[in-house]
Model the fold of this input.
Amino acid sequence: MSSGELVTVTIDDRDVAVPKGTGLVEAAASAGIEIPVFCYEPRLGPPVGACRMCLVEVEGLPKLQAGCTLTAQEGMVVKTAASSEKAAEGQNATLEFILVNHPLDCPVCDKGGECPLQDLTFRYGPGNTRMSFSKITLEKPIPVSPLIALDRERCILCYRCTRFSSDVAEDNQLVARNRGAHTEITTFESDPYRAPFSGNVIELCPVGALTSTQYRFEARPWEIQNVPTVCGLCSVGCNINATVREGKVKRILSRNHPEVDGGWLCDKGRFTYPHLIAEDRITEPLVRGELGLEPVSWDAALDRAEALLREAGTRTVTALSGTESVEQAYALARLLRGGLGAHTAVLPESTSDALDAFRLPLSSIAQAEIVVIVGDDDLADRAPIVDLWLKAAGRNGAEIVRYGPTGTEPTGPGGAAAALRALAGSGNELGDRLRAADRAILVWSGSGGGGGARLAEAAHALGFAEKPGSGAFHLPATPNGRGVATAWAAAADEDEANPEPIGLLIISGDRAAADPAVRALAERAEHVIAVTMFHDLAVGWADLVLPATSSLESDGTLLNLEGRLQRLRRTVIAPVPDELAWISQLAGRFDVELSPHAVVVFDELSAVAFGGVDGSELNGTAPLPARTPYEAPPPAAEVKPATPARPAAGHFLGELRLLRYRPLFSGPFVERVGELAFQRPPAELELCTADAERRSIATGDHVVVKSNGTSVELRARINRGLVAGVARVADEHAADLHLHVEVVKP
Amino acid sequence: MSPTPEIVFAGTNGGALTEIADYEAVGGFQALAKSRALTPDDVIAELNASNLRGRGGAFFPTGRKWSFVPKPDKIDKPHYLVINADESEPGTFKDREIMLRVPFRFLEGSLIAAHAIESKHIFIYIRGEYEVEFEVLVAALEQMRAKDLLGAVTIVVHRGAGAYICGEETALLESLEGRRGLPRTKPPFPAIAGLYASPTAVNNVESITSATTVMEIGGAEYAKLGVENSTGTRVFSLSGNVVNGGNYELPHGYPLRDLINELGGGIADGRSLKAVIPGGSSTVILTADEANTVTLDFDSLVGAGTAIGSAAVIALDDRCCMVQLAVRVSQFYEHESCGKCTPCRVGTKWLTSILQKIEDGRGTQADMNLLVSVAERINGKCLCPLGDSDAIAVMSYFDKFRDEFQAHIDEGGCPFHGESSLDHLLAPVAMHIALPEGKAIDGLINV
Done:
């Protein structure tokens, strides 16, 4: 932490003025002086001074000091290896010791060529070795998980990975075992490192000890390109680099946006890129003929699409997933609304504009005094990085209160809005503290609530608009729901018409296809066009299937949950034409002029919907727009009371409310990456202790879950943190179960 | 020079004061009552007047250490007193005898210290192997609780798991908090952010026990014992090739020669004195000539280029091969290195390997230079003193007995030809592995 006061430090005879408290490593760097480090990584918390690479001489102190553990003090005089023989000797000593047991397998090491140890050895290290004894040899590599390989011989024990596990992700899975020269990195009982953020340890490792099993032997640093883009898998939009070799994505790395992701990625964002080359990817248009779906040429497919569109006209309904870029959504809207007058759409959950009055960067969560989270979903399932910001807040001493089925204040499903109303009402003790705090944060993590409209009302009532440090975040279910809704709305003014019968249903993406409401429409529609990457549900209903691209394959723009527009870049050429290319062709047939180029489409859309923001401003790390004045959102619609579950009475055990959740590790991309299978949720049902005891169910028991004639067999798990009356099941294991279920032992 | 009356062991008559009534009969708990009637600042002033300095090894003034702990109104956190009873420095066995023979004087001192730093929480971190000592302490505590002597103070006796590094105060705090015992970087110092990031004083058992006497007889009176800069008495652990090894409470300034020859009965088996390790395995060795001139106090030993350390005096006779001794000492540090910082983790192992190579007769002249270079590359570059200690100790053997090292190179083997003996000189590393439950070594506990 640095204060505003400037202090002057003399480093290698140069005076450097930095804010008091600045780390010496950073102070030196600001003057262009390198203090080399291995273990030092400020994002992992306080320095540990373990590797001793940063030894410097400090005037007045007899011993060499670990530069990473020092902060700039007025009048401090420091000599680095560049100007002090003693410091240089210290650094050489450290490097020699580090290399004593380090194998010389750089030529076959994935890290070779981008390895801090290799680089520093070239710059500072000895040209030969004085070690004539056997190096420590160990089996290599051993799996830390199906995603991560550990080479203990290469490990220099900087403890970055274990500190990440315990002090950042707080999963406490990666640990050091044994002592002294026998110390090694491991997990408890050598279980796989199963946690949402495990892959970050690969990037943190300053040597080739922790490597990605996916990237293993795939490329060398001098034959790759890192393409800067953003992750399109959730509403955070972590900034990433896609490592590309010979037209293929080989790995995903973080590209630190300090306000958005802090340089961390979740394992879904990092490891799902092999979906691009999945065997079942649709690469040709398919038309339903007498023998089922058959591949056709793009010309034939567009002819068929044109015919379907002309036949249905205004009776066309469009279902969007929220995974499209704003350009793709806008282009579709211009074609369908402008060309056909088909204004009806099923849009993904959006985020209320009213929240723009309480806008903050995600990083501000870490500085909060109080954070209140409402909603039915775990943060890590909806917007994983938000969970890391929240953990940082906890470590900084924030009070964290969660209203939800697994919250600190156990609340039944759908209780978020009521919880917020109570907070914002008068006489609520926590609400009063939120009002009084300078830095209070509200988070809505779940569906409902008007896409954050209820959240905005609460934030307004709590006076957040006047507090530049207080804000509110809605975590939408899809990566670009708000961007898609905004783009759709920007293309025309006319209202929806609810056509009947539905002539044509266009289903864009897998999230729309998985929506039961869309499925109901598909059953009624005369024809269906599916735009998809894989043979998913919608393909079964489709008369025409058009292959889609992934967010790693298209240029475009996403609007993230903060309201920040971020640039997607085409990292590799897709095996199929870009959506904008065929949409613009089709649009031409309906006399709609539409560019096939994302930048041109964005400029057109930006003028209408984003205040004319220049797309070039979104390059690099994109800025967050300023707050806007609060405008009250439309009031909540009348909520019809849900049919109450029948509680236990007499011999009747009663029903439980089914709580479905969409786990982080789910969806078509995850399903296509074998290495991620171990991260997926088991087929289990969670119950609270009381509900389990009443049914004589113990963790591990097989239970039957029944509703309306459907039944599913699952493994039971007692979750002591779960609210009573609820059966929590991952979406993919809940099949067609209805809202109320009976849970019995067979 | 004759020993003065006992201070730490006063009233024991060679036995143990493990019954509270016996301790009270020799004036026990009067110092506590006196201290509690004083303000914390006055207690610290008394300690400062005594110039009592830390008996763990660093010789830091105890009163000053207490004065560094911020006053409760300055910081909104609990204050902790942590007592380092993780005595593990090779050659040192004084704290165990203090805990066995005068547990109440030690616990009384703990309460006095807690009063001085305004703490309500005392943790005694006791070496895991000290089972009997642990039981004696717990029994003494029970008796004190029964007499309601603790007041609002809680005392927890926490058993370590047998790691030397946990005698380093910050590693001890990590271990006490339930984590791996790895030293922390300083600053922050424990006085500001110690146990659970709260103000903490960490004191050695003997320091705390001596504090009881300081408060009993007064700081000025205590300061009259010993010599300037090294006041009071010290419990010296005499071991090695002497006739009568054991703990001897002596005033600081006592001649080392007299400790070995008079109290210790001289070198056993009619051998001659070769060298003395004066303050535990981490200190610079003294040749027999040097040992005959020094007195056992801070200034004299620093003047001789070594340190009083933990006051563990190890006398070596002429059968001791200095290279073998270096291997044994270096193996210990290699074994006990925590693995956190590079120079210690890698360097101690490398140093041992070079020493073993020389001892085995495979060493070359280049290995002699390498030995010096590796030791120099460890020394002063580690996170805590453990690695430095290995380098300092080994280098002192090398510097003062260089001919003996050279003879190993020249003769292609140990010049002692198997006639050397390290009997009674520090436990070999194999003995640092924990004993099975319920097994004791005969004669190890000798009260």
Observations:
- The longest helix of chain B spans residues 342-359.
